[in-house]
Write a sequence for this structure.
């Protein structure tokens, strides 16, 4: 079993709940209420800054240039097409991009900051793998539905599906798989804890999004 499969198995219940969530099911079938999607996007957009900093730190801690290049290429996607998607969506939905972070957002922001400040490549990877792999799992089965949906739903699917994104997740998993055998038992336990915490927080975030985040500055349709 790959180390990343082992880590996923430790968080199986929360992983299943997060990757087959009522929120994403409603997103992919187009039934998600407009206001609920706006609240979700406003909170998710608050992750961009911390995620960019975490990914940049992982790039700096990668063992070799070859190990860092795919992450650097992915960083360009986050700061380019994904950032642009958010801004286009807010404009289309007549919503502000700024919002106050909710508790579930603050918790994941703190986890990313803690991983970055740890200075440990394996801890950074544990958070990054969860953040991207869960999204690949929920989005991939529905890639063919994207063209039938408004772009602010469809593009959120295609940003997290397809061969390009699959290669990102495989790269991140490969990096964590590669470093795992070099860790002592204490370090492995910390990675396991970080991984499981990240999965739980992803589930908490989707739960809160489905319940409905407060919406900031939205003009009624």
């Amino acid at each position: 079993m790959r180390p990343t499969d082992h880590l996923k198995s430790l968080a199986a219940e929360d992983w299943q709940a997060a990757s087959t969530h009522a929120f994403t099911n409603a997103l992919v079938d187009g039934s998600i209420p407009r206001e609920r999607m706006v609240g979700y996007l406003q909170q998710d957009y608050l992750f961009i800054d911390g995620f960019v900093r975490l990914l940049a730190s992982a790039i700096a801690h990668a063992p070799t240039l070859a190990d860092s290049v795919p992450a650097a290429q992915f960083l360009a996607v986050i700061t380019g097409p994904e950032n642009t998607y958010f801004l286009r969506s807010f404009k289309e939905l007549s919503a502000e991009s700024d919002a106050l972070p909710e508790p579930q957002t603050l918790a994941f922001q703190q986890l990313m900051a803690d991983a970055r400040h740890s200075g440990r490549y394996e801890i950074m990877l544990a958070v990054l793998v969860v953040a991207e792999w869960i999204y690949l799992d929920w989005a991939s089965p529905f890639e063919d539905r994207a063209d039938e949906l408004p772009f602010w739903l469809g593009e959120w699917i295609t940003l997290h599906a397809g061969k390009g994104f699959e290669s990102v997740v495989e790269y991140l998993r490969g990096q964590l798989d590669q470093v795992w055998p070099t860790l002592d038992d204490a370090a492995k336990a910390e990675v396991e804890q970080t991984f499981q915490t990240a999965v739980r927080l992803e589930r908490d975030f989707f739960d809160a999004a489905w319940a409905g985040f407060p919406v900031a500055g939205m003009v009624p349709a």
Summary: The radius of gyration is 17 Å. The chain has eleven helices and no strands. The longest helix spans residues 65-92.
